[in-house]
Every structure is written in C-alpha cells, then in structure tokens.
C-alpha cells in the first residue's frame, strides 16, 4: 500500500517554461520529452549544484506525464519510513526522485532504494533521478545501490553565470506577460540575492506591484519597490 504523501508540484515547473542555454540541455530535453515512449530511456540521472534546474526538470516531467508519474523530494521525505514511501511505486509509469544524496548513508533508505530500482527495472517503470554529484561521486554505502544509480544516462547541469541568469529572468518575465528590459534585468541580477529561487520570488513581487500601479518594470520602479 502506498503512503499518502502531500507533495505538490509547482505550477510553473513545465518543460516549455525551461530555457535551454547549453548544448547539453539541447540533447537532454528531447530525451526527457520521450522518456515515456516505448524506446525512451528507462533511467536518466541529472546532477549539478543547487539552482541548476534539476528540480524544475523533474517536476516538469511529472507535469507532462500527469497522474502516471510521481515526484518524490527525498530531502523532505528522509524522515519517513523508506519502505513505506517506495511501496508499489514500481507500478507508476514514471517516478522522479529528487536530491538522492539526501538519504544516502541511511541503511534503511539505501536498502529500500536498491530493491525499488530492481522492481522498477522489472516492471519497466521509468526513473528520473537527481543529486548534487555524479553517481560515482556520491557517498553510497551499499555497493549494489551505487551500481544501480549508474544504470542509465547521466547528465551534468552546470550552474548559471550572470548573463544566463539575466536571460532566464527575461524569459520568465515574458512567460508572465511582462516586459523586463535588459537594463532592469541586469540591475536585478547584480543587486538581488544570487539564488534563482529568490530571483523568481522577486519577479513575482514586482509583477504584482507593477500590475497594481500599472507601471513598467524600470530600474527606478524596481529600486522604489524593493527599497534599494
């Protein structure tokens, strides 16, 4: 019996809402789009630093698959009973396990993951995994689990530089129906916290305020709104 988990997907986490800024992503995106096809990859492993887009892509793949998929943020679930979390998950079409490194070193989780991977391989359940390091660099105690983590395709997602963050901000703004001039986007990236998650929160706040005041997103407007 599956454990009832209160895991919500972010509405904006879709594949169409992800800006492809590297050659590696140009290769990866079609593989994600086709993972549930008969010839799709059974296991895809994404690794990279925080704010590299791993969680977005996992949630986006779940959005695309609908009720046939499940997203499990392991950093949030590591205090749960591992066997209960993963029970019967092999019958899903797609299971996305985010932040695998968060549960490594815990014997019960490593054993549960090992047996789940074996069951998933037998049923054909597709797996999309993420961690902060490549499979061979993870602190895995159970050697057999380490080999399972290396079963599929492995892709590295690098962190974004400032120019890429500017492009991402303007892309996100456009998706929200906003016009964010280059000068304003550059000011935000230089002045605001570096984490993309915080930049998205700032953009949402500016969106609400600009709508309320019917004002364009200019540098003076941003300075006044943010109190900078």
From TrEMBL:
The lineage of its organism: Bacteria, Pseudomonadati, Pseudomonadota, Gammaproteobacteria, Cellvibrionales. This is DnaA regulatory inactivator Hda. It comes from Sediminihaliea albiluteola. The gene is hda. Residues 82-154 form the Chromosomal replication initiator protein DnaA ATPAse domain. It comes from the Bacteria. Transmembrane segments: none annotated. Coiled coil: none annotated. Residues 162-226 form the Hda lid domain. One of its GO terms (biological process) is negative regulation of DNA-templated DNA replication initiation.
């Amino acid at each position: 019996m599956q454990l009832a988990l209160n895991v919500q997907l972010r509405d904006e986490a879709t594949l169409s809402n992800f800006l492809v800024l590297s050659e590696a992503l140009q290769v990866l995106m079609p593989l994600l789009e086709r993972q549930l096809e008969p010839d799709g990859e059974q296991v895809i492993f994404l690794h990279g630093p925080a704010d590299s887009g791993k969680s977005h892509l996992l949630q986006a793949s779940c959005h695309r698959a609908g009720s046939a998929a499940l997203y499990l943020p392991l950093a949030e679930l590591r205090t749960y009973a591992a066997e209960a979390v993963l029970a019967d998950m092999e019958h899903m079409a797609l299971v996305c396990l985010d932040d695998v490194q968060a549960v490594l070193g815990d014997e019960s989780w490593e054993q549960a993951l090992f047996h789940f991977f074996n069951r998933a391989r037998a049923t054909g359940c597709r797996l999309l995994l993420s961690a902060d390091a490549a499979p061979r660099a993870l602190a895995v105690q159970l050697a057999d689990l380490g080999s399972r983590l290396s079963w599929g395709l492995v892709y590295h997602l690098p962190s974004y530089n400032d120019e890429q963050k500017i492009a991402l901000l303007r892309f996100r703004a456009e998706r929200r129906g906003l016009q964010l001039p280059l000068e304003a986007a550059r000011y935000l990236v230089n002045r605001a916290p570096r984490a993309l998650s915080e930049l998205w929160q700032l953009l949402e706040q500016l969106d609400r305020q600009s709508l309320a005041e019917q004002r364009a997103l200019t540098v003076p407007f941003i300075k006044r709104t943010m109190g900078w």
